Amino acid sequence: MSKKQLLSRLLQMLVVLIGISILTFLLTYLSPGDPVRNMYLAQGLMPDEEQVAVLREEMGLNDPFLTQYFRWLGNCLRGDFGNSFSLNKPVVTLLSARLWPTLKLAFCAMVIMLIVAVPLGVLSAVYHNKPIDYIVRAITFFGVSVPNFWVGLMLTLLFAVRLKLVPVVSSGGSFKDLILPSVTLAIAMTAKYTRQVRTAVLEELHSDYVIGARARGVAESKILWGNVFPNSLLPLITMLGISIGSLLGGTSVVEVIFSYPGLGNLAVSAITSYDYYLIQGYVLWVSIIYMVINLLVDISYNYVDPRMRLRR
Amino acid sequence: MKKKNFFLRYPGFTIFAILAAAIVLVAIFAPQITHGVSPIKGNLAEAIMEPSAEHPFGTDKMGRDVFTRVIYGARASLSSTFLLVMVIFVLGTFLGIISGYFGGAVDAVIMRLADMMMAFPGLVLAIAVAGILGASMRNAVIAISLVSWPKYARLARSLVMKIRHTDFVAAAIVTGSKTPYMLWKYMLPNTITTLVITAATDIGGMMMELAALSFLGFGATPPTPEWGFMLNEGRSFMQSAPWMMIYPGLAIFITVVVFNMLGDNLRDILDPRNED
């Protein structure tokens, strides 16, 4: 990516970011009923009219929409995402405490995914329409069809409840705590990614230069790892960026199953207690992380694909 | 001649079409299959009983028959999934065709909206929307539609763009075809096959997303029998009553497998270019 491209990309990101912030802010507006009343009710309190009115005024809920939005945006830009209503702490403190465990979980899942998906995908492509290919395809098919929360529950039942190899509730501290959640998270992604690796490699294997290389007697392994695989990396990196998005979004379900102390778990409990600031903070943070990752993926093309460098 | 042999020519499609139809029939005839046992009213004296001849899948904490609830659960899962796929299919196709056909400001607005929706990773926005709107199957459908239409819109747009500037389209416009006619007779038919394939292959995934929302407590509400929510209820009884979560999960799994296979087979029939 040249400097100019990067700049236009950043500008595009800014537009989308503004959109994201409006949408995130609108979440409170979408909410049926009065947010203040909902917050009280979620805590099991019956507020009187006066309390509600005072708090509404305090939160600035009586101001016009744009005033509210820009005040909120200004605060966010200064790093102030408000106070969590249910946990009585600044949203920033809560989110940053949970950010690391979630990233750790997503990272582990991604490592598992790469370790399994890349060899399986390549194998399946090389032995196209042979028994190995059929087996891999069958496995990936089941992988994409099984709900990951159910797999998580079943794995817990087997390994934690019956065999007692790992703890039922993971505190997110030790390595042992990470195994089940990250495996659960990785299953669906691995299956999808294996298919994509297979398709990408297969496509590359059918190109003319491969036939040419074979005709010249170049060793098959050299063609595969020296030419075909590096050439199919580009689409694979793009898909990896997209997969990371699903990983980040998918963590909430897995975190709830394993009571893992991550962002997703926090968000789910925030929603059940109508903790608007916390929900807004969560949605905003995760989407920004996702955007940054995708930007990094785009920048990495520079290093993977020499054609991108030459274009400058 | 061709029509007569259709089912024989595509045995894979036929088998899974029959299985899918069977699942739909199970949902429709749930009362007959379960011999009139109520999925909602339980007998507390029979709470948490192991699978037996009387209760093949056991009973739950309210003494309700799990088998009955799994069978009835097909209703909520299937109807909401079909509704969801219909909504995103119609909405996405419509916006995509308009975007590709008119271009310019319309295109920019729709596509930037799509970009924004796609900037939220996975279920993040859907969870927030479903949670804030309040738990119900309808709100879960709204939430997932909101984040899923861009995929269809982009696809439809790119397909329309491919033919937008071809000669036959220009000729049709010059000879006085009205815009709605153009969209309906030229643009839609060119996009519909690919979009139908996408929708068909998406059914399984959408079903799992809905079940995931229900599992988190943002979908179906008790006492409605729904597979995702049954897993949620069964979770706290994992040790004492594993059957409470084994069977609903199995039901989701089997249904998703059948619909995924059906979708894949349909794709092979409609799109011969794809060799997988």
Describe the protein.
The complex is a heterodimer of chains A (312) and B (276). By secondary structure, chain A is an all-alpha fold. Chain A contains 13 helices and no strands. Chain A has helices spanning 3-30, 35-42, 49-59, 65-77, 91-126, 131-145, 148-162, 175-205, 208-215, 220-257, 263-272, 276-304, 306-310. The termini of chain A are close together. The model of chain A has no long low-confidence stretch (mean pLDDT 83). Chain B is mainly α. Chain B has a domain at 18-36 and 63-162 and 191-261: Orthogonal Bundle (MetI-like fold), CATH 1.10.3720. Chain B has helices at residues 6-9, 11-28, 30-33, 66-102, 104-118, 124-133, 137-164, 167-174, 179-216, 227-235, 243-270. Classes of the chains: A mainly alpha (312), B mainly alpha (276). At the A-B interface, helix 1, helix 6, helix 7, helix 10 and helix 11 of A face helix 5, helix 6, helix 9, helix 10 and helix 11 of B.
Could you list some keywords that capture this structure?
heterodimer; A: 312 residues; mainly alpha; flat; B: 276 residues; MetI-like fold; 11 helices; 0% strand
Low-confidence stretches of chain B: none
Largest sheet of chain A: none
Q: How many helices of chain A does DSSP assign?
A: 13
Most extensive interface:
A-B, 48 and 44 residues
How far apart, in Å, are the first and last alpha carbons of chain B? 27 Å
Average per-residue pLDDT of chain A, rounded, comes to: 83
- CATH C-level class of the domain at 18-36 and 63-162 and 191-261 in chain B: Mainly Alpha
> Could you estimate the helical fraction of the residues of chain A in percent?
over 70%
**What fraction of the residues of chain A are assigned to beta strands by DSSP?**
under 5%
Helix content of chain B: over 70%
Low-confidence stretches of chain A: none
